[in-house]
Amino acid sequence: MAAAAPSRTYDQSLSARVAGLPWPRLEEQLDELGYATTGPLLRPEDCRALAALYGEAERFRSRIVMRRHAFGEGEYQYFAHPLPAPVAALRGLVYPRLVGIANRWQEALGRTERYPADLDAYLELCHAAGQTRPTPLLLKYGPGDYNRLHQDLYGALNFPLQMAILLSAPGREFTGGEFVLAEQRPRTQLRAEVVPLGQGEAVIFAVNFRPARGARGFYRLSMRHGVSRIRSGERYTLGIIFHDAA
């Protein structure tokens, strides 16, 4: 039998930490840069417990070795249902904080699709469209590993924001392995940005594209993300994607 999920109940503690994040500042950052960092969200003991799940094969629906698909070097696993308690809690707590931003971005870009106020209602739409497989995942990198710039699109329905939480301690448990974002403006070169993260800190970022204001209104910026080469140690990351996969 699998060990109990980390943080057993994940009761009011996680809910309070999510509620206590500086959401107005995060929204401003997302609008300006296409990403925002939260500061500490998970405690070190939470991070260690989540990273330890990587060896429990029964918790996952599939394992991807990046080299086989030219995604980079390293590997990751998608969680199976039921999701571990803290993963399900994070998904359900953060989605309502982002849905207003997501709908505002849709309006700015002239798109008619709007997202429901709560995660369960949105997942019902995903499942009705044939997207039934859970997408939260754990990523594992060792020395020399990296993740090429990419977008996490798994079907016709895609929530425009996602979250990654660094579970390992930079400088102590690994070196290198910076989170990298690349932004493509129309008719210009890519703009890359390195996003430093601490252990337990999350970055919230655009999955596919985001709006930017121009002289004639809003236009679309394409976004990709990846991880630079690990120099030493091991780096674990929790990825929270809000749409399910086909």
Can you tell me the CATH class?
A: Mainly Beta
Give the C-alpha Rg: 17 Å
Number of domains: 1
* CATH homology superfamily name: q2cbj1_9rhob like domain
Topology:
Layout: H1 12-19, H2 23-33, E1 35-40, H3 44-52, E2 60-65, E3 72-73, E4 75-79, H4 85-108, H5 119-128, E5 137-141, E6 146-150, E7 161-166, E8 174-176, E9 179-184, E10 190-195, E11 201-206, E12 209-214, E13 217-227, E14 230-233, E15 235-240
Antiparallel strand pairs: 1-11, 2-4, 3-6, 4-5, 5-15, 6-13, 7-11, 7-15, 8-14, 9-10, 9-13, 12-13
Helix pairs in contact: 1-4
List keywords for this structure.
globular, about 35% strand, six-stranded antiparallel β-sheet, about 250 residues, Jelly Rolls, seven-stranded antiparallel β-sheet, alpha+beta
